[in-house]
Prior knowledge:
Elements: E1 12-18, E2 27-33, E3 41-51, H1 53-60, E4 76-84, E5 102-106, E6 115-119, E7 123-125, H2 132-136, H3 139-152, E8 160-163, H4 169-180, E9 184-189, H5 192-201, E10 205-208, H6 214-221, E11 227-232, H7 238-245, E12 246-254, H8 267-272, E13 276-279, H9 287-300, H10 302-306, E14 314-319, H11 323-332, E15 338-342
Parallel strand pairs: 8-9, 8-11, 9-10, 11-12, 12-13, 14-15
Antiparallel strand pairs: 1-2, 3-4, 3-6, 3-15, 4-5, 5-7
Helix pairs in contact: 3-4, 3-9, 6-7
Amino acid sequence: MANVLPKTVPKTMTAIEIKQFGGPEQLVPATRPVPAPGPGEVLIEVAAAGVNRPDVLQRQGNYAPPPGVSDLPGLEVAGVVAALGPALSKWPGVSEWKVGDRVTALLAGGGYAEYATAPVPQCLPVPKGLSMVEAAAIPETFFTVWTNVFERGRLQPGESFLIHGGSSGIGTTAIQLAKASGARVFATAGGSAKRKACEDLGAERCVDYRSEDFVKIIGDLMGGKGVDVILDMVGGDYTAKNIQLLAMEGRSVQIATLRGPKVEINLAQLMMKRLTLTGSTLRARSVEQKGAVAREVYRNVWPWLEAGKVKPVICKTLPLKDAAEAHRVMESSGHIGKIVLTV
Ligand SMILES: NC(=O)c1ccc[n+]([C@@H]2O[C@H](COP(=O)([O-])OP(=O)(O)OC[C@H]3O[C@@H](n4cnc5c(N)ncnc54)[C@H](OP(=O)(O)O)[C@@H]3O)[C@@H](O)[C@H]2O)c1
């Protein structure tokens, strides 16, 4: 029968609520009912939940969850399947999961909690050899990088790729996936420790944007040809520079606008180099669209994860109750890779 939790699942759980929009101190532990899995969903007993920059934006009141989604923050978890919702023909696959299976899932919200529900198309098995903490750090960044770099940006083996914010959760993923795909990889990051981390992960050259000019340095390294694909979370004054650095037929994919969304560009350069400027957000996509990304990531990236060719970079783990501290760490921008909450 729908929406009845098994006796093994408690009725209430600890979750992290956003008391009101504002600073990290607004993230507070609270008692909430354990959510019941709806049709086509599983209930996950959360072992670890990834922290992402969009959670910070949500806490500040600048990134509302899509309609009908939990108000709790948290876009990705790993744990074990605790209950199955009723089968649903449009999202088949509930019956492929069993209580006790190790699962990692992309969520539209609700991950900062002891239990979370996820539509089955957004669930994948924990890659063999990876811990729950590592698995929880995968969905949001790996799905985002896959769909933007390889689907929208159409990065091909042998092409060149630049990621801005190379030391971020997104950046450390993008460097590794682009490198594993056979691309030549460049990055930008602030400071020498971050620069070194990006180069250790596989970037041929990471430009310290605080003291160096990425257009000049990467332009010279590419012999004036420019780069084929850029993944940009910065926007603002970077946009015109990206256009300057892109090669003929180059593609720039926008996933955030840390330096502002409104820019002035030279459309003549766009025409002369036949460039593509595009972008996307993951959270607003339908379950079917996220499921399609999940299947491609499973097919292409899971073998790399299980072979140890790529690995989520974990900077810090903190207990769930310390979510506020996790956001402070993220906003200080001192981290390299991912911050993960453990339950
Ligand atoms: N579109 C989507 O679907 C989607 C999905 C997930 C994430 N995102 C976005 O992707 C970005 C990265 O997410 P994340 O979770 O990986 O966050 P994160 O680890 O906190 O990374 C943010 C990075 O931005 C860099 N940065 C901050 N301000 C900057 C500036 N003014 N100029 C240049 N670099 C700057 C920081 O590095 P430095 O210290 O080197 O400056 C930091 O590494 C976020 O903006 C997030 O909102 C988008």
